[in-house]
Design a protein that fits this description.
With 110 residues, the protein is mainly α. The chain contains two helices and two strands, in the order H-E-H-E. Helix 2 links the parallel strand 1 and strand 2. The longest helix is centred in the N-terminal third of the chain and has 21 residues. It is globular, with a radius of gyration of 14 Å. It starts with a helix and ends in a 5-residue tail after the last strand.
């Protein structure tokens, strides 16, 4: 049960931060994601870092394809403020405060 409360706490804090950044036109580059684990399992806080750190030779759970998509999204976001890479088209939608623009990210399928 502590895991559930911890997850809700992280999600609520991320939502509050996004709302505050988006209010009053403070920022136009707000995107939210929620890591959904590896095939829907093992979605613990920070486990997605395995997909973007190191050279990829030690992937224990994720796929190389998901890792490439993840790295391309981060690079695109750094370059332009938009995490959509060429391969992802417009899969990432800017935060709109409704909850419908939350990107669910899986470590096996992207």
């Amino acid at each position: 049960s502590n895991t559930i409360f911890s997850d809700f706490g992280h999600i609520a804090c991320a939502e509050l931060i996004a709302q505050r950044l988006a209010s009053g036109g403070r920022s136009h580059s707000i995107y939210r994601y929620q890591f959904d684990g590896f095939g829907g399992r093992g979605a613990h806080h920070g486990h997605e870092l395995e997909l973007c750190l190191g050279d990829g030779s030690r992937l224990e759970r994720g796929s190389e394809e998901a890792r490439k998509m993840w790295l391309d999204s981060w690079a695109s976001f750094v370059r332009s403020g938009d995490p959509n890479s060429d391969a992802m088209a417009s899969a990432w939608e800017p935060y709109d405060g409704t909850g419908r623009t939350l990107m669910l990210w899986d470590g096996l399928t992207g």
